Each structure stands twice: as C-alpha cells, then as structure tokens.
C-alpha cells in the first residue's frame, strides 16, 4: 500500500532566492487543490536586485547549480528556477541554466521566465504591462529585454525598491492598485514580475471578462512545472485564467 502511494506522489523542486518569503507559502496554497503534488525548495544567496556588479554576481550559475544538485537528492520530477533575473540578464541565461541543471542532475528543468515566454507565445501576446517592485534602471532594462523579443510594454508600474526581502512586505492592496492602473491601456497581459510579490490571489479578482490576463510570477513558475510534468494546470481552479485558459493546457 505504501509503495503504491509513494509511486503516485509527484515532487516539484524550486530554486529559491534566499530572502524570498512569498513563493513557498503561495506555491503551497496553489498546490492545496492538487493532492499528491508537493513542492520542495533549495536556496541560494540573493539579497538585492540591482545592476551593479555585486548584485549581478548573485546569479552566477555555479551557486544555482549547487542548490539544484541538493534538490536532486529529493528525487524531484522537475527543477524550476523560481526567479525573474533573466528579465534583465537576458533570456539566454535561463536557457543555458536549464541545460546545465539537466546535465548535472538528469532531471527536467524549467524557469519562471521561460515559462512566461511560453505563455505569452501561446496566447499570441504582443503587449505586456509590467508590475514590479524594482528600481527604475532595472525596470527599464526589463522593458528593453522584452521589447527586443517582441513584447512591447504600453504601461508599467514599479516601486523603486532594491532590497529583496522588502519585496515580500509590499501589501496586496498596493499590488492590486498597480495592476488596476495598467488595465486602461488594455495590454494583452499584465505581469507581476517578481516571485517575492504576493500577487497570485489577485488574478481572479482583477482579470476583467475579455480583458488582459493577469500573470503572477509564482503562478507562472508553477504552471511551467505542471506542464513539464504532464499535469493539467486546469486542476487548479480559482487562481485566474493562467490555469484555465484552454490555450495553456498540454497538447
């Protein structure tokens, strides 16, 4: 009996910035509707988001790979980098990271940003509003990165914060107001671009019928993990159109 239960259990491995306090509890809440699937995390040092050399060095692949190898000990089915750094470092950083994780662990890998690009492509999106806690220069770099990939940013809101821990203390009311200010521009999508902002529960509240889809970064990462595992995202009802849109299902 116990072996049968064990074989049915599925495990998701999450690579987590060390000062992030949002993504683990939010992911657990999301997975409460999917019995038998659990999330497990491994951390590496990230304390600030900026464009100076010290801040950028936090995302050196060697540190992330060490954390990924520890997740492999838990025999997870997929390993996800649950962070948004490729938005300012370049998407190829995440593509190379996925290759290195898979080579080092033999486990399929994905990332928040590669999953976001997959979603935007499936939706046929060409415009994306960006909501983030980041500083002005980081936000500008992010906008340019997505624009170069064909996703224009007609409207954005950012908070000018550098400290990563502080991102997790931003009230949901503030995030909701930022999303609301982006609705009038009618982008194809509004993305809460930070896995340490508590925006996942806001999507079903703020998505207007026939209007922009609201994509929270934590939800995006989990969507990517479920797709990589061959599980249907629409098993998670009540968390916004990211999980229920027919275009965002396997096959």
Would you write up a description of this structure?
The chain is of the alpha/beta class. The chain has 2 domains: 2-113 and 218-248, Rossmann fold; 116-216, Rossmann fold (3-Layer(aba) Sandwich). The protein has 12 helices and 8 strands. It has helices at residues 2-8, 23-31, 53-57, 61-72, 86-89, 91-105, 112-123, 136-148, 164-167, 172-183, 203-206, 217-228; strands at residues 10-17, 37-44, 78-81, 108-111, 128-132, 156-158, 189-192, 213-216. Strands 2-1-3-4 form a 4-stranded parallel beta sheet, sandwiched between helices. It has a 4-stranded parallel beta sheet with strand order 6-5-7-8, sandwiched between helices. The protein is globular. The two termini are 32 Å apart.
List the helices and strands and how they pair.
Layout (H helix, E strand, L loop, with lengths): L1 H7 L1 E8 L5 H9 L5 E8 L8 H5 L3 H12 L5 E4 L4 H4 L1 H15 L2 E4 H12 L4 E5 L3 H13 L7 E3 L5 H4 L4 H12 L5 E4 L10 H4 L6 E4 H12 L23
Parallel strand pairs: 1-2, 1-3, 3-4, 5-6, 5-7, 7-8
Structure characteristics:
single chain, 251 residues, alpha/beta, Rossmann fold, 2 domains, 4-stranded parallel beta sheet, 12 helices, 8 strands, 43% helix, 16% strand, disordered N terminus
Kindly summarize this structure in a few lines:
The protein has 251 residues and is of the alpha/beta class. Helices cover 43% and strands 16% of the residues. It has helices at 2-8, 23-31, 53-57, 61-72, 86-89, 91-105, 112-123, 136-148, 164-167, 172-183, 203-206, 217-228, and strands at 10-17, 37-44, 78-81, 108-111, 128-132, 156-158, 189-192, 213-216.
